């Protein structure tokens, strides 16, 4: 994997770059649609490619390991082949999903034991197992097995948590560096900075992660309920320590405003379930603010969902029609709303990249931040 920089903003730490993988290039800043069980819910691969031009999607290690399972994925020749996606894929380590999905789990030095949320069967994830699973899935970028420190937590807990994450990282690197890709495409491992909302722990974790000299770095433990100002403060501290010439991935972030503010702090890659999850609840993000399509005010509004958008669905379907579909619990409603939100997120980061290149990013970002929160 390679990373090159094309432009840097003068009023902020925003930058425009290109990540090059064996499955293609990714222009940054980039938003990565979240796939769960091998699909971005309610969206076809063709739509991801042609309608919204998604450059990279996320695969969910925890889900894929449980269902369809590694045997089928290996038989298919990896996740790219299994789902029919020939562009880059990033998979998480499965650790975060264990915390957020499976009820019973125990965290020990060795790893995490958990009961499957599907059939209750007992499983163990360790740093080594997480590496082997992601080798079998075959994603271009794979994530270290970390502990996402819960928020809030006291200093002592946060300090012991980063020490565990750092010991697990060494085991991830040892295992990853002593195994080969299974399908002939190169894979790269990103470590993850933790430290909760404690500045000195963030410095310690960022310095340790930087010292591992991997091809890219991630920032974890944020967007877990902390106030936005805390998120920005920790991101700034970490971005100032992580190497300038490597991509920085802020995990689980976030709202459109969060993304713009973090681009200004030097973040290049983002993922979040919000555009897809909120779409299914009728919350549409637009360049003029937020539309709750279920609101009665849209019932007879026959104007296009977004007349300024180059997304076909935004042009041909009206707000009234989408509201009708959502109220009727029609599948097409979720499909249109999801496509709209992902298209908006990808438009937003592409617009940010163009403004960084043209030198207009800072003023544009401040204007957008005042508009994007509007309730329409
Ligand atoms: O420290 C972390 N370590 C590892 N993963 C984290 C994640 C999951 C990122 N998305 C993975 C995807 C992989 C493919 C399947 C789906 C998840 C986070 N998500 C959030 N906020 C989420 C949210 C923000 C707002 C609403 S939810 N904070 C996170 C912090 C960490």
Automatic annotation (TrEMBL):
GO MF annotations in UniProt: tRNA-guanosine(34) queuine transglycosylase activity
UniProt keyword Transferase, yes or no: yes
Lineage, broadest ranks: Bacteria, Pseudomonadati, Bacteroidota, Sphingobacteriia, Sphingobacteriales
GO BP term, example: tRNA queuosine(34) biosynthetic process
InterPro entries: ArchSynthase1/Queuine_TRR, TGT, TGT-like_sf, tRNA_ribo_trans-like
Residues that bind substrate: 92-96, 146, 194, 221
Subunit structure as annotated in this protein's UniProt entry: Homodimer. Within each dimer, one monomer is responsible for RNA recognition and catalysis, while the other monomer binds to the replacement base PreQ1.
Annotated region described as RNA binding, given as residue ranges: 252-258, 276-280
Species, as recorded: Pedobacter frigoris
Listed NCBIfam families: Q_tRNA_tgt, tgt_general
Pathways involved: tRNA modification; tRNA-queuosine biosynthesis
Protein's gene: tgt
Keyword tRNA processing (UniProt): yes
Protein name as annotated: Queuine tRNA-ribosyltransferase
Domain tRNA-guanine(15) transglycosylase-like: 12-369
GO cellular component annotations of the record: cytosol
């Amino acid at each position: 994997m390679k990373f090159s920089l094309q432009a840097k903003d003068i009023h902020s730490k925003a930058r425009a770059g290109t990540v090059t993988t064996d499955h293609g290039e990714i222009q940054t800043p980039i938003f990565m649609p979240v796939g769960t069980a091998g699909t971005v819910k309610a969206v076809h691969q063709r739509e991801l490619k042609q309608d919204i031009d998604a450059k990279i999607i996320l695969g969910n290690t925890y889900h894929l390991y449980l269902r369809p399972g590694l045997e089928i994925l290996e038989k298919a020749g990896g996740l790219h082949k299994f789902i029919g996606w020939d562009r880059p894929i990033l998979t998480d380590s499965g650790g975060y999903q264990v915390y957020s999905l499976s009820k019973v789990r125990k965290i020990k030095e060795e790893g995490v034991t958990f009961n499957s949320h599907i059939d209750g069967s007992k499983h163990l994830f360790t740093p080594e197992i997480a590496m082997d699973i992601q080798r079998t899935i075959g994603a271009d970028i794979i994530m270290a097995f970390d502990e996402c420190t819960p928020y809030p937590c006291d200093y002592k807990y946060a300090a012991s948590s980063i020490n565990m994450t750092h010991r697990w990282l060494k085991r991830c690197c040892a295992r990853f560096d002593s195994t080969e890709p299974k399908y002939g495409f190169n894979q790269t491992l990103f470590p993850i900075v933790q430290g909760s909302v404690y500045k000195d722990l963030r410095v310690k974790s960022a310095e340790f992660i930087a010292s591992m000299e991997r091809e890219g770095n991630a920032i974890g433990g944020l967007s877990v309920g902390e106030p936005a100002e805390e998120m920005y403060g920790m991101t700034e501290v970490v971005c100032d320590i992580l190497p300038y010439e490597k991509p920085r991935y802020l995990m689980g972030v976030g709202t459109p405003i969060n993304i713009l503010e973090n681009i200004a702090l030097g973040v290049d890659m983002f993922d979040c379930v919000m555009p897809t999850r909120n779409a299914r609840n009728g919350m549409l993000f637009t360049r003029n603010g937020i539309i709750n399509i279920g609101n009665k005010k849209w019932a007879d509004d026959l104007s296009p969902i977004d007349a300024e958008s180059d997304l076909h669905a935004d042009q041909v379907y009206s707000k009234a029609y989408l509201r009708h579909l959502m109220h009727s619990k029609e599948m097409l409603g979720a499909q249109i709303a999801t496509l709209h939100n992902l298209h908006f997120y990808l438009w937003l980061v592409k617009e940010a990249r163009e403004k960084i290149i043209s030198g207009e990013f800072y003023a544009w970002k401040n204007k957008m931040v005042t508009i994007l929160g509007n309730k329409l």
